[in-house]
Amino acid sequence: MENATASNRPALGMQGRLARICGPGFARPAGAADEVGGVPARWVAAPGTAADAVELLRLAAEHDLAVVPRGAGTKIDWGGAPSRVDLVLDTGRLAGIEESADPSTVEVGAGTPLRAVRAVLARTGRRLTLDPPSADATVGGVIAADEAGPLRHRYGGPADQVSAVRYLDAHGAPATVSRGADVTPAQLLCGSRGTLGLLLSATLRVRPAPPSRIWVSHPVWTPLEMHDLVQGARVEAAEPAAVEVDLPAVPPRGQRRVAAGTAGAGTLAIMLEGGPADVRERANWLVDAFGGDAHATGRPPPWWGRYPAGPTEIAVRIEAPVGELHAVVYALRDAVGAPVAVRGSAGFGSVQAALPGDLPPGRAAAILAALRGVLLARRGRCEVLAAPPRLWQVTDVRGPRSHRPRAVALKQHFDPQQRFAPGRLPDRE
Length: 429
Hints:
This protein is of the alpha+beta class and 429 residues long.
């Protein structure tokens, strides 16, 4: 008898089966809020234990259900729309914080809100150095999205903070990967966006919380000014924990250059951490070195740790050598034909740009192709993180074809049946 697909097979009491695994009240038909990149889901289930998650994935394999893991859902659309979504696997109950004998690490359940981990560690004067802009994100979501904030300048991204991960493969089989193995956590799950496995927990590095923080800000009006400030020895000599830039749209024609904080003016902000006296001394030195309108405050700028793109815009992550970042921003402006908002870690070479969400698909593809051409010549890369659903149909949005063989190989190795978020990673070259 021919095997029917999940899309045309009768429900056959699937909700009841999901409820028997997860418990009453933790399995339901999907609603409009459960869409993934505009693709409607069929069911939502929230396993309470790793054993429940194993059973869910085995059930999904038995009935050919496409699964999309979801934490808080803050980045559920990142990476594009899957070709189908049968089961949204909510990780909210796979939460918890387990202290280890080593005070420099902590094991955290994938569904644990990052803010909860911070609150627990703060009681003992410790912190994670993960500071993603998504305030309500879960630990699993941050790792799956490879989401980093300003502190990446000193400590790197999620892959640098993870020493081990526990996950389930497409058949529900558990596995653990530690740093130093042939396949690192970064290669395996960081940035995979739910396409290779279900993260159960991660062991994260923990560091002492700094006694004091100060932000030194300086206005910038052009990408070149940003480049000159960041490339100057003054910034690194101050031993910054983070170096961020905010480049909004250029002010209307005729508007004169004024101090940072006024509409149209951008800002370069440097965060310093350490003991109060030491931080104050470095901040004063940096203000004097910058001169002009530089100033130091005990609070970050209002845009600090926030993404530049709104919910209806196209969010593009750009990575380039620090010394080439300004040229890439200029090239992006030329490709769009107008200024675009750019914000992120100028000292690390990783920023986000916000493109108009109403661009025609062909125009969006042309802009991305031009940007990628410039980045290729400068050893950089870019990817579309979020966009209106209609734009995910444009092949070029997903990146150049030269990157496909590795993505295809990963998907075929870890998920040959296309169980997790099918269509987000190419299944063929």
